[in-house]
Amino acid sequence: MKIDRLVSIIMILLDQNRVGAQTLADMFEVSTRTIYRDIDAINLAGIPIRSTSGAGGGFEILPNYKVEKNVFTVDDLTAILMGLYRISDLVRGDELIHALAKVKRFIPAERAKDIELRANQIYIDLSPWIGNKNTERYLATIKTALQQNKTLSFDYADRYGNPTARTADPYRLILKSNRWYLQAYCHVRNDFRLFRLSRMSDLRMHKQCFPPREVPPPQLDFPDIETLQTKIVLRVHRSVLDRVLDFCTRDDISSDGDEYSIVRFPFIENDYYYDMLLSFGDRCECLEPTHVRTEIQRRLQSILAVYQNGKFVGDVQNAAVTDSSPSTERQTPPQNSKSL
User: Fold this and answer.
1) Alpha-carbon distance 340 to 330, whole Å?
2) Which residues have C-beta within 8 Å of that of residue 101, sequence separation ≥ 6?
3) pLDDT tens digits for range 288-338
4) Is 86 exposed, middle or buried (0-12, 13-18, 19+ CB in 10 A)?
5) Which of 18, 166, 266, 296 could pair with 60 in a Cys bridge, judged by C-beta atoms 3.0 to 4.6 Å apart?
6) 176 beta partners
7) Three-state secondary structure call for residue 216
8) Which residue, among 118, 24, 116, 13, has the nearest Cα to 69 in the 3D structure?
């Protein structure tokens, strides 16, 4: 791509003072005539490049327009590299690889190891242990659509599982709390919406481009979250205490013997928080308030009723029938098997 080659030539000239036309041609696998045209384009862009002939000749940027390597401090270069490393892990692409290579040209050789070591002192991996396999593929498609202003279509399920077909103009990719979102103008709602990538399916990019609009800032926080939260009292086993600490601090925890702790847990009365408490299983008991404890009992009874009444057993058995096994009888798993 020509623009990438032009930027790379500028970076090389900043780094190496003087470079011959044939050297540049070999480096980018183009003809010397193409290199001369590139140099003319760089001159027209306002960066003066002069050429010298003879032995040791070549192209160089005039000294008055040089950007010295020491324009960046060690801390500057460390911060830039750290950010680029983390972004390249999340959103892969040739432009990020090229950006890393260009930034590294500013690193003095005698400081390279020190800066590389410091840049790797913080490692951030936001990918889930087990994730939606479509996410990375969808990220690449959305990224292309963002760059080319192309409309997207996809099937979308809301948080209650209700499916809808959507057509939307993409404007921004957002990473929030280990989840990817797309901010886009939805043709169905005639307004901007946030779509979680994990709820998308059958993502397609259209050929037509869309006109740009003024994009509002995404709504990523709940301003009244603290007023909605109350503190409930839990008794939790030490085996799940690390999960509890994702939501509260040690100041909210007091010992209750060797195995258990009493926790003042921040809580909002909605499905998300009730599901969270239920995910602790028998390692957690809500002590107060009474109405939260009663609601947990009700939800547990509803779960138990599903298994007692066999509500879904028939569907599961029918789906389990295969050509290789004429029997539909369910086999009992070994007693020492681990349930996931």
Assistant:
1) 18
2) none
3) 999 999 999 999 999 999 888 766 554 544 444 444 333 333 333 333 333
4) middle
5) 18
6) 179
7) coil
8) 13
